[in-house]
Amino acid sequence: MAKTKFFAKGKEGFLKKLFGAAVLSLGLFAFVGTKAMAATEAEPNDTLRNATEFSIDEEVSGTQPDQRDVDWYKFTLTEPGTVYVVVNNEYTRDGYGRVALYNEDGFTEYWNLDYNFTQTSLRAESEGINLAPGTYSIKAWDFFHWDINTTARKYSIKIDFVTNEGRSIEAENNDTADRANEIVLNQKTEGQLSYESDVDWYKFTISESSAVSVSFDHFYYGFTASPWRLNLYSDLNSETVYYSEKYYGPEKAIITSDKYYLSPGTYYINVERGNSYVSLPYGITVNCEGTAVITMLRLYNPNTGEHFYTSSEREKNALVKQGWSFEGKAWEAPEWSNTPVYRLYNKNSGDHHYTPSKKERDNLVKQGWTDEGIGWYSDDNKSVPLFRLYNPNAVTGQHHYTTSARERDKLVQQGWKDEGTGWYGLPESK
Ligand SMILES: [Ca+2]
Ligand SMILES: [Ca+2]
Ligand SMILES: [Ca+2]
């Protein structure tokens, strides 16, 4: 069965048509023929080696006397853009034929049409395929008429080419991670799942720890299925997937992932088709924000001996009114990271506890502590350790946290127990 095109080519297709009409009317006005120039196949062109070369300004015509004839063509793109392969058949009798678009190697396939043609259906057009500059090949073969006495078929092939015009568009072949297209951060990249095996790989690099989310906009496709899968990988070898989502129709929508706090490095994204063959354009944006630095403040309660930490000026001021002393800046925390530090409260003793360990949090909750949610985030790059100390003699203020090794050592001398590192702060900003 010939593939049905469920979807027009979206905005690109529309623009192309507008652009085409403008060129045509200009051409008429100037009395200059802007119609594609004619070229003819040069037999024998039965192998890729002998392929007939034509340019994207030309409409190349060929003849196939019987089903054995294979015609190869090739053309070169000097800039990236979207290619539509247009095939026209001259009518003699109903029949069928095949056409395919490949890489220069004549093997990597972008589009493969196995189609019937009748008097009212002589034209076939590929999906938009976003290609990098380079040489590509086309093969036309397997022509067959239902009437065996019919004479040869005549056909023509033409490339409709739309330049990227300043937009960021994928460049095939990007079907494997090692051929991933580089994404410009905070800028939409347009892609299309064009041919049946099409997978689109992208990569981006961040030079500093950042909060990153991925926005994916997909188009209406008219029936419910799962045509999209998008994955964000932090590490191709271990295939850590930060984000994996299936997109369902039918509405056109922009979906934005959660924010991920990513360490400096290169990350990969792939877009794949789900369980149905549909040729669909999409947009993908990697939103990259630097993370804000939160100043954590330290307070001391002279009555209970407890230290308390907060980023809230308001909470600090309220506690100072209640008799706490403000001891200044404790450390700097990222506004977000993959490692939240949980804050717990013991209403019997009035003590607070802080831990990035879910297990410790859950144990304390079982013992009657109140989970007060996320207090702050630990730096995933583990820049500045917050030393954790334990005072076995205290009821409240049992734990103390400090970035100062000197303070830690002094407390250990006074009988505190060194419990290692509680969490991490950011490098000191100057
Ligand atoms: Ca031929
Ligand atoms: Ca693609
Ligand atoms: Ca691809």
Helix and strand composition category: mainly beta
Q: What is the beta-strand fraction?
A: over 45%
Q: Bound small molecules, which ones?
A: calcium ion
Task: Report how far apart the termini are.
Answer: 67 Å
Q: Using the alpha-carbon principal axes, give the shape.
A: rod-shaped
- What CATH architecture label of the largest domain applies? Sandwich
Q: What is the count of DSSP helices, taking H or I runs of 4+ residues?
A: 4
Q: How many beta-strand runs?
A: 31
Main sheet summary: 6 strands, mixed
Oligomer: single chain
Mean pLDDT: 84
The tally of structural domains comes to: 3
- Range of helix content: 10-25%
Extract low-pLDDT stretches: 1-34
Query: Would you give the CATH topology of the largest domain?
Result: Jelly Rolls
Q: What is the CATH level 1 assignment of the largest domain?
A: Mainly Beta
Task: Report the C-alpha radius of gyration, rounded.
Answer: 32 Å
Brief synopsis:
The protein has 430 residues and is mostly beta strands. It has helices spanning 10-30, 313-321, 358-366, 405-413, and strands spanning 37-40, 52-53, 58-64, 71-77, 81-89, 95-103, 109-117, 123-125, 129-131, 134-145, 153-163, 168-169, 181-182, 189-193, 200-206, 210-218, 228-235, 240-247, 253-256, 260-262, 265-273, 280-290, 293-301, 306-310, 325-334, 339-346, 351-355, 370-378, 384-390, 399-402, 417-425.
